[in-house]
Structure formats: structure tokens, C-alpha cells
Amino acid sequence: MSTPFVSALIDTYNHERFIEQAIVSVLEQDVSPTEMEVIVVDDGSTDNTPEIVRRFTPRVRYLRKANGGQASAFNAGIPETRGEIVAFLDGDDWWTKGKLSMVLDQLARRPDVGAVGHGRYEVYSGAKPHCVIVPDRDYEVRLRSKAGARLFSQLRSFLGTSRLTVRKAVLDRILPIPEDLVVEADEYIFTLASAIAPAIVLEPPLLYYRFHENNLFMIQSADPARQRRKQTSLAALVRTLPEALTKLGVSQDVIETVLEPTWVDAERMRLTIEGGKPWQTFAIERASFGLDYSHVSTGYRLFKWFVLGLTLVTPPRRFYRLRHRYSASGLRRLRRVLGEPTPAAPIEVQSGA
Questions:
Q1: pTM of this prediction?
Q2: Torsions phi, psi for 141 (to 5 deg)
Q3: Of 71 and 342, which is predicted with more confidence?
Q4: Residue 293: CB partners within 8 Å, gap ≥ 6?
Q5: Which residues on neighbouring strands pair with residue 85, listed in sequence order?
């Protein structure tokens, strides 16, 4: 049997409504079947996902395992891949036509590059994109300086699972992934991959990224168990990445820069779930303000300092409930009166087509 050039690795769990569309989007890529294998790792689905996937055999190889989360699915699936390159896809998303050829072309022209990501369409219901989120141009990132680490952190959302393609040789240096990363295992992969070799982020949206009620990562979920799972995984990243990055020769100041946004997310969720001291909320929100914007108007700066003052007199759990209501109610539009801040990340958000 010939060795395929690329392995498409689909991880899935209870995606019976979506998995067929994900698989079809891979099979319809303009890559010869002799050059591509498709593997679906089922993380112990309890719905009809297995029956749907098996309809695609022998074109698709089905691997089933006990439920253990994203890291365990990757640890089971990646060693089974035979391609020189592995392209990841979550079972509830789907690729645009031509995605693989564009990504593979980048890797063919740049043998020094270890990973590629790209822009995305976001779909909230039905099939029509709600919005398009892309970088303002193509970028190359690597964790070799604080400036490179800041750019990586600003662009990391374009390197998540369904956007991520990595050389197998790079993945072999990363495995195994800590299995307490029930979610966020993709961030462990793309962070270390960017330390091993340069990563490219392409501007075009090459993925339909689906939001639905069962997304495992949703921060604003009202399900306490889901919130805790997310927070535990973020905390595990903050705990495990420093040692792994150090072994790859990344300096301490770069590691701190890389992990600051993840630390902010983890601490926000911890304070939301467990509560804490008001000064902890102040520290987190002040750090987030510095990360999020490159320029703010005087009016918005005064508003933000008012919010920071509020953190010092409001219990954390109550503060984050108020913050969520503020965002959900559309009051964020009041920022236009104060002057919209300029985001630090070089990202463009466009209305869906």
C-alpha cells in the first residue's frame, strides 16, 4: 500500500447531525484519493455517529475509543496517521472546497514551515455564515522573541483544530499530549508546533466553524460541568506548556508572553465559578485591557477605569454575571459614543455572505 501524502484526521463525539457534512467536505477536496487518507477518531459517541461514519468505509478509516476528551482522541489518532502532513477537523465543522490544496501548496513551497492555519466563516444556525473572521493579511509566526510571541497570541484563534495542518515530523516531537486537556488540546499542539518551526496563518477563510448548543468549549455555557471542564483544561495549559516550551529552547520571557492570554482566560473562568478576591478580578481585567487594545480614546479609557474600579468593590462572581449581561444585552454598542478602541490583534470581522 502506498503512503499517502496527507492524513485528514477528524475527531468526533456525538456529532450525528454534523459528521456526514464534515466527512464529505474532506472527500470533496481536490486531492487525489491515492494521496490522502481519512481517519475518524470517535471519542466514545453514544448517538448514531458510528453508523454514519461506517457508511463511508473503506474510503474512511474509523477508530473508536472510550470517551476521554480531545487530547486522548489526538493521542489515539495521530500515531495511526501515515501521511507526511496531518490536517485536523472537528466533526461538527466543515472545510471549504480547495482548502487542502491551498494549505499543501504553502507547505510544499516552504519546507521550513511546520504548521499552517487560516481564516474562518462562523455559522450559528443553518448553513449561512453569520460572519467571516480573517487576519488582515498572511502572517508568519514563531516563538523566538516577545514580539513573535505577542503576534502568535493575537493570531492563535486561526490555528485551532479545524484550521490546523501540521507536518507529522513536528507532531512526533509533541506527542503525547497531556490527557487532562479534555478540551484545548489543539492549543497545546499549535503552541509547541510554533516553537519547533515557523507557522503560517493565511488570510482566506477556508473553514465553516459551527456554533451549536453542544460545543464543548463554550465559555458562556450555563452548564457548570462544562464551565469547569473548560477552566480545568485552560489551567492545565498554563501548568504544562512552560516545561514543554523550555525543553524546546524557548526563553522565559517569551513563555510568559505566550501564556498571558491563556492565564487571563483561565483565571476569569475560575473567578466566575469559584469566586475569589476583588483584587484578583482587578488584576485579570487590567491585564486583559492591556492585551486587547493597541489604542483607546480618552473617553473609553475613563470608562475602562470605571469598570476596573467596579472590580474592586464587587465580588468576582457577581462582577462576571454583570459583565455577561452587559455583553448579551447589546450595551457594548455604547462604546461607539466613547470612541471604539483599536484592537491589538490584526483581525478583520466581516458580515457573512
A1: 0.93
A2: -130, 150
A3: 71
A4: 341, 342, 343, 344
A5: 6, 167
Helix H or strand E encompassing 288: helix 278-292
Concatenated DSSP letters of 156-194: GGGGSGGG-EEEHHHHHHHPSPPTT-SS-HHHHHHHHHH
Strand 131-135 versus strand 85-90 pairing type: unpaired
3-state secondary structure of 21: helix
Residue 102, judged by CB atoms within 10 A of its CB (0-12, 13-18, 19+), counts as middle
Task: Enter the C-alpha cell of residue 158.
Answer: 486561526
| Per-residue pLDDT tens over the stretch 189-222 | 999 999 999 999 999 999 999 987 665 444 444 5
Query: What does the alpha-carbon distance between residue 202 and residue 122 come to, in Å, rounded to a whole number?
Result: 16
The string of pLDDT tens digits covering residues 275-305 is 999 999 999 999 999 999 988 888 888 989 9
Domains for the chain: give ranges and CATH numbers: 6-210 (3.90.550.10), 224-344 (no CATH)
Residues 6+ apart with CB under 8 A from 306: none
Nearest in space to 121 (alpha carbons), one of 216, 206, 29: 206
d(CA 142, CA 229): 29
For the record, the C-alpha cell of 317 comes out as 462572581
Closest CA to 22 of 115, 93, 111, 123: 93
C-alpha to C-alpha distance for 59 and 24, rounded to whole angstroms: 11
The per-residue b/e assignment along 231-268, b for 16 or more CB within 10 angstroms, e otherwise, is bbbbbbbeeebbebbeeeebeeebbebbbbbbbbbbbb
